[in-house]
Design a protein that fits this description.
globular, binds uracil, two-stranded antiparallel sheet, Rossmann fold, alpha/beta, nine-stranded mixed beta sheet, binds 1-O-pyrophosphono-5-O-phosphono-alpha-D-ribofuranose
Length: about 210
């Protein structure tokens, strides 16, 4: 079974509290999503494999460590996942970026796919699927289904806020996927929104409501 890492670093919790505030404006919301994503990426990449490399400093030659490959793919789930991309790219600028387009049907709350474009060598890459919200877990599980169908293997899921229901669905569907969250919230309401959550992440990022 995959693991759930909750990042309770004070900076992340502080920024998350600002993000949740309904009075936080679109511009600030966007900046906070970027900053929290960057802080989370720092933690979530802490187990990436390293290799020995020979470096010549001005003083002498020495064996140092560098990332084994630059083989990372970031895959935002459209549209809200896009808000997390730049924060992660700030730390791993050579990562390739794929996209999976899904939206939740407002009546059924089930994910509907409308786009999928991944790096051609996706099967070799360490993959970080990103979306600010894990609510019922339907979108994340479906996105990872598509990624696996195209050859993706080493998959991590990063989100800002998760409901316990979504974590369970994702773990059952993809027990091999580790989940990284900034906060695990209480539950889902009758509209499958996370409580206390932050509302609709896509609308708050792009000012569409
Ligand atoms: C939101 C969010 C997730 C999904 C989570 O996207 O960004 O993708 O809902 O819900 P789930 O876990 O119940 O599937 P939404 O469908 O609102 O689309 P958007 O990103 O285009 O706004
Ligand atoms: N999607 C969101 O943007 N927010 C929620 O609380 C649930 C799904």
């Amino acid at each position: 079974m995959g693991t759930v890492h909750v990042f309770d670093h004070p900076l992340i919790q502080h920024k998350l509290a600002l993000l949740r505030d309904k009075n936080t404006a679109t511009k600030d919301f966007r900046e906070l999503v970027k900053e929290i994503s960057m802080l989370m990426a720092f933690e979530a990449t802490s187990n990436l494999p390293l290799k020995d490399v020979e470096v010549e400093t001005p003083i002498c030659k020495a064996t140092m460590k560098m990332l084994e490959g630059e083989d990372i793919a970031i895959i935002p789930i459209l549209r809200a996942g896009l808000g997390m991309v730049d924060g992660i790219l700030a730390l791993v600028p050579n990562a390739k970026v794929g996209h999976v387009g899904l939206y939740r049907d407002p009546e059924t709350h089930l994910p509907v796919e409308y786009y999928c474009k991944l790096p051609a060598d996706i099967s070799k890459r360490e993959i970080f699927v990103i979306d600010p919200m894990l609510a019922t877990g339907g979108s994340a599980a479906a996105a990872i289904d598509f990624i696996k169908a195209k050859g993706g293997k080493k998959i991590h899921f990063l989100c800002l806020i998760a409901a316990p229901e979504g974590i369970e669905v994702l773990h059952n569907a993809h027990p091999d996927v580790n989940v990284y969250v900034a906060a695990k919230d209480s539950h889902l309401n009758d509209h499958a929104y996370i409580v206390p959550g932050l509302g609709d992440a896509g609308d708050r990022l792009y000012g569409t409501k």
